[in-house]
Amino acid sequence: MIVLLTGDDQHAIQEQLNQYKAEIDSQWLTVREAARLQTFPDDYYFPCAWGESMRQIGNAVPVTLAYIIASSIRDHLHSLTVGRKIVSLSGKL
After folding, report:
1. pLDDT tens digit string along 31-57?
2. In this model, does residue 3 exceed pLDDT 60?
3. Number of C-alpha atoms within 13 angstroms, CB side, residue 73?
4. Rounded to the nearest 5 degrees, what angle is found at the Cα of 92, between the Cα atoms of 89 and 93?
5. Backbone φ, ψ for residue 3 (5° rounding)
6. Cα-based torsion angle of the residue sequence 42, 45, 48, 54 in order, rounded to the nearest 10 degrees
7. In this structure, what is the dihedral angle of CA atoms 42, 43, 47, 49, given to the nearest 10 degrees?
8. What percent of the chain is predicted at pLDDT more than 90?
9. Residue 62 in domain
10. What sign has the CA pseudo-torsion 69, 40, 53, 20?
11. pLDDT above 60: residue 87
12. What is the pTM of this model?
C-alpha cells in the first residue's frame, strides 16, 4: 500500500512530530528515575537538592556493577590464597 501525502498533510505530520519531540525534550528525569537507572535501591535517600542529587547519581558507579566487580575481585583473591599461607608485610600471620 502506498500513501501519497499532500504538502498540507506532510506539514501537519511534521508539526505533530515537532510538538511530540518538544514534549520529550522538556521532560527531566526525577531523582528517583535517575537513581533507578543507576540501580540504587528504591529506599536509598538523597538528602540534597535536585541538582546536587543528580550530580551525585551521575558520578556514581552503578550499584549492581560495583557489586559484580567487587565479587569478582573477592573470588580472584580467594582463588590465589586457597591452600597458601597469606604473609603480611610484617611477616606475622
Report:
1. 999 999 999 999 999 999 999 999 999
2. no
3. 6
4. 105
5. -115, 125
6. -30
7. 20
8. 47
9. yes
10. positive
11. no
12. 0.55
Measured between alpha carbons, how far is residue 37 from residues 17, 19, 30, 65, 90 in Å? 27, 26, 11, 12, 44
Q: Which of 56, 62, 55, 54 is closest to 37 using CA atoms?
A: 62
Report how many domains make up the chain.
Answer: 1
For residue 19, is it within any domain? no
Is the confidence at residue 4, as pLDDT, over 70? no
C-alpha cell, 92: 606475622
Q: Which residue has the cell 550530580?
A: 55
Range of the domain at 32: 24-81
Mean pLDDT of the residues in the chain: 81
